[in-house]
Structure formats: structure tokens, C-alpha cells
Amino acid sequence: MALPSGNGNSISGPDPEVLIVGSGIAGIGAAQRLYQHGFRNLRILEATERSGGRIQTAHFAKGLVEIGAQWIHGPSKENPVFQLSSQYDLLDEEALSEENQQVEVGGHPTFPFTSYSSSGKVVDPELVESMTNFYNTLFDQSREFLQRDYDPAASVGAYIKNEIAHYAQEWAGDEISKKLKLAILNTLMKLECCISGTHSMDLVGLSPFGEYKILPGLDCVFPGGYESLIEQMLKSLPKDIVLLNKPVKTIHWKGCFRGQTPQERTFPVKVECDNGETFTADHVIVTVPLGYLKEHCNTFLHPPLPSNKVQAIRKMGFGTNDKIILEFEKPFWEPDCRLIKLIWEDESPFVDAEPDLQKVWFKKLIGFIVLEPPQQYGHVLCSFLAGNEAEFMETLTDAEIVTSLTEVFRRFTGNPKIPPPINILRTKWHSSMYTKGSYSYVAVGCSGDDIDTIAEPLPEGPTESKPLQVLFAGEATHRTFYSTTHGALLSGRREAERLICLQDVQCCKSNL
Ligand SMILES: Cc1cc2nc3c(=O)[nH]c(=O)nc-3n(C[C@H](O)[C@H](O)[C@H](O)COP(=O)(O)OP(=O)(O)OC[C@H]3O[C@@H](n4cnc5c(N)ncnc54)[C@H](O)[C@@H]3O)c2cc1C
User: Fold this and answer.
1) Pocket residues for ligand 1 (CB within 6 Å)?
2) Residue of 271, 211, 192 whose CA lies nearest to 482
3) pLDDT digits over 267-277, tens only?
4) Does ipTM surpass 0.90 in this model?
5) What's the gap in Å between 403 CA and the centre of ligand 1?
6) How far does residue 289's CA lie from ligand 1's centre (Å)?
């Protein structure tokens, strides 16, 4: 189904020049909303050779795999990515069913799994399940400190570890079984690092953890790839709206810049690209990732960003969650297995990981998801890896990764004959110069107010004669859905609405 093209709408008064920096879902979402409201002087400047940003689909083995976003988290009525994808007819029947939309998984969907231990044994699934339930209870509790005036710990990691230490005293059984329980809990904390996009849950603030809102619905994927959503969104906009290969170097604001032609009026904003090209505008919506902003916050704006914004950008967390995707000639896992969990028996939430990443980077892997069905994907496993270990993995060659992981598979299954994978694809989100990581989290010392500070438009204050010169969108600017595609989409629409309201107010004033 096509979305309203906006042709019926036209804005009264002069059509402002709007530039959007970044052609991810936030930037395209902002453009779509403005276009629907009649804005026609719109351009998106994108640094790379493609639109989509952290939504990126690739061909691998027999099918498609996701380099960036994998699932719609909480695919139900309140999720705008779910709504839009349903309108575009991009989801399968199961994802669209009422039943699927009502499932409450609390952020932790479960799959049929097999857990292997580092001594090459299958771990009792009942034990893994009971530890998972215990962990999920602690996780749910860690989200309840938002409105309390007292935090029992600074970080989510510290809180969960304190609780584990408390309950572990009552565990029955011998030392070996207690150690195994701790090792299982450690695997679950590593999974949490991937979900939060952080090196350690010790870095994630406890009291603001409850800001993030979990929507109902069992996470679903796009049969035609997540990027099919970006393609559909772009179809609702004029073809030439996105200018690719235009890395923005500096946004000059609070200025008085003459437009491209001699007779043109002046503009408060001028955007300068790496190649020296410039674009003037009334308004710029910045949607670059927080990782990029962190690295360039002193030079990206001129005059520079106000100090409260710089502080919030520096304090907020932005970490790495990478994927390693492997194709095998034949599966070594059971046909009904959807998830292979790896439990390192020597690990515990109370023991720091060895610092020599060369020796141990692969111990941070949480296991492997089986991409299903094999007729569609081939025999493909996908793993997630977060933090410093992921950043180290990005420096290795494909062959080095394949060698390490083949050893891991052989050791954990106790089968020394498992052949190496025939194909590998791994992501490098930390090294990607226009992203510098995967997604944001609210770090220790931060609060939801810091997210709002980052999102605050410039110039600050209501008295400016040229308001809303620089606006900020992107996943890291959404207080309750940060780190997600739906948070990013909503943030782009939010900033578009700001401009639409401004236009309405200015139009009313000029009609008085
Ligand atoms: C591995 C991984 C897995 C994920 N899994 C999920 C998931 O399952 N579900 C989910 O909801 N979310 C997931 N996410 C998060 C989700 O992908 C992002 O939150 C969302 O796509 C961000 O959109 P955005 O528009 O804010 O930013 P982006 O998509 O990053 O878009 C910003 C754009 O700005 C461009 N840019 C940067 N600097 C400049 C510059 N100087 N000049 C011009 N352009 C510039 C970039 O190239 C980019 O195209 C995942 C992300 C990753 C990396």
C-alpha cells in the first residue's frame, strides 16, 4: 500500500529550505513527514554511497542476512516500524497475526536451544531454563528503579551481581554445580551486553535503565530484508532528494549566508561538506549516530555545540555489538535447534575476563542463532559479540576468526571433526567511520534528561528571530526507545513535527 504522497498538502507562506544530515531511518522518516506536509525544499546529505545507515541487508549463502538491525522489537500497534512495514506489506502472516502482537516476552524472546559447555558436554536444559528464569527476574527488577529515590547500586551489572551473590548462598548442591550455575548466569550477562550494546553491564546506569520501554509482540524479521523498508520509504520521496557521498564536515549556524544564486535571500545556516561543497538552509536536522557526534563534537558545529550538550554527548553510552555470520556445508546441530548456547565453565559474573584479547576474544560470544529455514538461508549460524572483544575482532582477518571459531565448535561439541565454515561475513560497526559503534545506552552517571539535552534544538530559548536552525534526531535522541529502529523513526518524525508547527505558527502570525 502506498503512503499519502503529500501532493494534496501545501504549506502556506515561503517554503523553507530544510537539510537533513544522514540517510538512515531517522533522516528518511523526517523527510517523509515533511514531504507529506508540503515541504518541497528538502535534501538529505548522506556521507556514504548508500541510504539506510544501520539498516543494511546483504546477500549471503542462499539468502539474505542483516548487517545491522535484525528484528522489529515489540512488533505491535504502538511500534511505528511495525505499522509502516505492515502498510508496505513487508511482513509475513505470522508477524502480522494478533496473537504475535500480544506476546509479552519482556525483551527476552526464547528459542529452542542446545547448550554446550567448554568441556564438550550438553548442559541440562532444565538447569539452563531455571537459571534463565532467575536471571530474567533480576533483569525485570533492575528496570524498577526509575522512580525510586534510592539506588541499591550504580550500574545494572553491579545490581544483578549483588543479587546473584545474595541468592547463591542458598543454592543447594556441590561446588561444581554452583560453578556451572554461575557460568550460565555469566553467559546471560554477556547476552545482555549485546542487547544493550555495551562492553559490560557495569557501564549501564541502574536508575535510568527503566526509561527504555518494552513493547508487546514477539520480535519479527523482514522476509525481504530490513532494507526493504528503507527502499519503500524512499519510494514515497522524489528520487533526487538524497545526495549520496556527501560527508558533512561543519554546520555553520547563527549566520547570515547568501544562497547559491545572486538574487537569493540569506539563510541562518550553511552546511560545509568534506569536499568544500556548501549548502544553505533555514533548518538542518542532524541524524548522525552518537558515535560520530562523540568523535566530532568539537568541530561538527560552528559556533560549537553548547557545553551542556557536549557533556551529555560525552556521558551517554555508545558501544559495539557486532555479528559473525557463518555458512556450513552441512549442519552439525540438531534440526529443531534454533540457538546454540556456549557456556564457559571457568567463567563467573564475579571474575573479570582475562585482558589479553588475542587469547580470549571469542569467549565473549554468547552462542549462535540458527537462521531458519535452511531452504531459505542455507546452513547459516549468526552470533553476536559486544564490547572490547568485538572491537578487537574487527582487527582480525576472516581466516583468523574462522580458525578460532572452528576450535570453539569442536571443543564445545566434543566433535574434533567438525569442518570449518565455508563462508564468513562479520560486521565492523566500530571501525565504520560514520557510525563508530552500534547503538546507544544510558551509561552510569547519565539520565533520560541527558537524552533530552542531546535532542534539544539550537539556538536554545524561545526568543530567537531565526528559531530551529539545528535540530537533532536519531536513535540516541529518543528517551524511551533509544537503540532501536522505531526510536530512530519516531525521533525523525518528532523533529519534522517541530518544523511543521513552526511553519503553522509563522503562517498564523503573517495572516493576522
Ligand atoms: C549490529 C546491529 C544490530 C541491531 N539490531 C537491531 C534490532 O534488531 N532492532 C532494532 O530496532 N534496532 C537494531 N539496531 C539499531 C538500529 O539499527 C538503529 O537504532 C537505527 O537503524 C538507527 O537509525 P538512525 O537513522 O538513527 O541512524 P543511522 O542508521 O546510523 O543513520 C545515520 C546516517 O548518518 C550518516 N552520517 C554519519 N555521519 C555523517 C556526516 N558527517 N555527513 C553525512 N552523513 C553522515 C551515516 O552514514 C548514516 O547513514 C541494531 C544496530 C546494529 C549496528
Assistant:
1) 21-27, 45-48, 53-55, 68-71, 73, 247-248, 287-289, 292, 321, 323, 427, 429, 434-435, 438-439, 474-475, 483-485, 488
2) 211
3) 999 999 999 99
4) yes
5) 30
6) 6
